[in-house]
Amino acid sequence: SPAVDYIGMNDDEADFEIVGLYERGNGRSCNRHDICGSQVGFDSLIRVKLTIVEVPEGFREALACVLIENGQESCRVGFLPKSYDGIRDRFLGKFAQVCETYKNSASSYKCRKDHRNSGMAVCTLLDSIPDLE
Question: Does 9 map to a domain?
Fold first, then answer.
């Protein structure tokens, strides 16, 4: 497959980014949280699901990230970037664990990226974790 310049696109990598953690639109708030993505931190578990979101041009399909709490789906907390749409089958229905949130990163690049994308985190697909042998 062709090499691309963002996380998770190489065949041997399972990492991907989620965006919009600090937004409340498109289902990212509930009766328990004003902003559901504020619940996401290191080690949080998420599941990627296909959904429909409203955008200025109308509606479109999007890859939503749903937080897993106490073994069940909880809140929609963010989305995979639109750039992942072409390879969405790699992520649909998969579980992942948050490895890092960018908000308080020591990297100024990651902090700027976090601000520009209304909150970001990087996750690893759980079915891609290597066995210890």
Answer: no
